[in-house]
Amino acid sequence: MSRGTSTGKSGSAARDDSPCLCGLPSSYGECCGRFHSGTAAAPTAERLMRARYSAFAVGDEPYLLSSWHPATRPTRVDLDPAMRWAGLEILATTEGSAFHTKGTVTFRARYTRRGEKGTLHERSRFERHEGAWVYVEGTFVD
To answer: CA 95 to CA 33: how far, in whole Å?
Structure first.
């Protein structure tokens, strides 16, 4: 998810035993929560994409910044408190496995903002930086 100024948070942090916001059938603590807390690193570009989506949903700006490539990282992420993320759908991935150094993830994220529903459709580019997957940039898809 791109643009340091156009996304928001859910209003409350996810509990470790609640379902993960990224859509995988695991608890938040077992899935994206461990990436957010720093106890594990996302093993693939897709898992980083899912963790970043969850970070937007819970308003975890430090994780969003730390998982952003230093060459494209903004100084801050302006999270919109009116934004409620409602679901993530991974549409396609290229490369981005444990054996790659680059990858892309195309996704659709649903949201509600001040009662209006919307979607963000983006192709995100990821690279390995100092051994870890990081978000580089995204392109909106029509």
So the answer is: 24
